[in-house]
């Protein structure tokens, strides 16, 4: 008889637990939303970009090669910390223009040349070219200054800017 009472209590407790699980708040089928996360940089952040070019002197081996590296460094000013500030494409393009202008190149035409060249890639094979297509695609009308161009405008940009973003090595170990 004692064993029967234990079995009945076990079944009763299991049934109560099942009811709590089935009809409690934890089984609610509503969607759970996560809070949007933002990326912000602390004051006096340092940014750099490095571009490498390589030309093999002997076609059948890579030991004898000439290389050219172009590194751009810049520091964010101390008053630039704005939490939850969104990064816009037009700001990236404008900063690229300023950076290239300060290095003696025509920034507007170099950015436009990069856009024209990236638009000519139909099926990007390397991850580098996929990233370039994501960066330089037209997402809104804010970047119309760079994206609204004709074939003649692209040719002018190619002739004006000596720097081709497609000639940057997508990897440096080959």
TrEMBL record:
List the keywords (alphabetical): Membrane, Transmembrane, Transmembrane helix
| Superkingdom of origin organism | Eukaryota
The residues that cross the membrane are 7-24
What InterPro entries does this protein map onto?
Answer: DM4_12 (IPR006631)
Q: What is the protein's given name?
A: Uncharacterized protein
């Amino acid at each position: 008889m004692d064993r029967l009472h234990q079995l009945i209590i076990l079944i009763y407790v299991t049934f109560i637990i099942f009811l709590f699980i089935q009809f409690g708040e934890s089984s609610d089928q509503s969607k759970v939303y996560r809070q949007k996360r933002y990326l912000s940089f602390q004051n006096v952040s340092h940014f750099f970009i490095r571009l490498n070019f390589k030309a093999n002197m002997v076609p059948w081996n890579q030991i004898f090669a000439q290389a050219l590296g172009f590194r751009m460094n810049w520091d964010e000013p101390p008053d630039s910390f704005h939490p939850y500030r969104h990064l816009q494409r037009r700001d990236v393009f404008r900063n690229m223009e300023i950076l290239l202008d300060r290095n003696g190149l025509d920034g507007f035409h170099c950015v436009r040349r990069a856009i024209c060249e990236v638009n000519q890639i139909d099926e990007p094979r390397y991850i580098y070219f996929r990233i370039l297509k994501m960066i330089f695609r037209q997402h809104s009308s804010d970047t119309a200054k760079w994206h609204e161009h004709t074939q003649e405008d692209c040719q002018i940009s190619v002739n004006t800017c000596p720097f081709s973003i497609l000639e940057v090595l997508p990897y440096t170990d080959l």
